[in-house]
Amino acid sequence: MRTEQHVESVESRLARVRGIVQGVGFREACVCQARALGITGWVRNRTDGSVEVMVQGSPEQLAEMCAWLRNGVPSAVVDSLEVNSLRSPVERVGQFDRLPTV
Prior knowledge:
Blueprint: H1 2-8, E1 11-20, H2 26-37, E2 40-45, E3 51-57, H3 59-69, E4 77-85, E5 96-98
Parallel strand pairs: 2-5
Antiparallel strand pairs: 1-3, 1-4, 2-3
Helix pairs in contact: 2-3
């Protein structure tokens, strides 16, 4: 029963960060921040110039990560942040990685 409760406390969210967020170290800083918070998932650049981030963790961890995404790194300019909960079961990722651009 405890295992089920632990699994239920893990949420998954998909975020899209728009602005000047490519070529400024945003993804690498995102990896460091997520790993420091104990979050799993991934980050990748999109060909439209945005950065996409899938995060998995407790509601508290995700709130802290999303707050960080609103500002990013000092050299970034975040114009908008869109965050959506992933409601369907999402397989838990083992760590936080940087993926290739799509």
